[in-house]
Structures are given as structure tokens and as C-alpha cells.
């Protein structure tokens, strides 16, 4: 699903960028341009970021 219409960024692209190491909105904005134009995508992007970071922490805790 498209999250950022201004830059044509999908939820999958955001998730992939997080998997590749992005850990903040600033990094996602720099890498993908999300939240840099109209700003309507910011809330959805933050939700995806938070969910992915929780997944990463849960997986890390299970491995340790």
C-alpha cells in the first residue's frame, strides 16, 4: 500500500529500509523522502517504524 503519495513510497519499502538499518523518522525521511512534503504520511510511517522496531527487539530477545 502506498504510504507516501508525494514520493511514491510503499509500506513494504519503508519496512525494507528499516530492515536495512534505518531506526528513526529522520533516517527514513533522508532515505525515502517520507514526511518531507505534505506530511500526511508521517503518522502511518511512525506506526510502521514502531512496529518494526518492536519486532526487531522481540527477535533479538528470543535469540539471546
Automatic annotation (TrEMBL):
Molecular function terms from GO: 2 iron, 2 sulfur cluster binding; metal ion binding
Essential cofactor(s): [2Fe-2S] cluster
Keywords, ordered alphabetically: 2Fe-2S, Electron transport, Iron, Iron-sulfur, Metal-binding, Transport
A Pfam family reported for this protein in Swiss-Prot or TrEMBL: Fer2_BFD
Keyword flag Electron transport: yes
Domain (BFD-like [2Fe-2S]-binding): residue spans on this chain: 2-51
Family: Belongs to the Bfd family.
Protein name: Bacterioferritin-associated ferredoxin
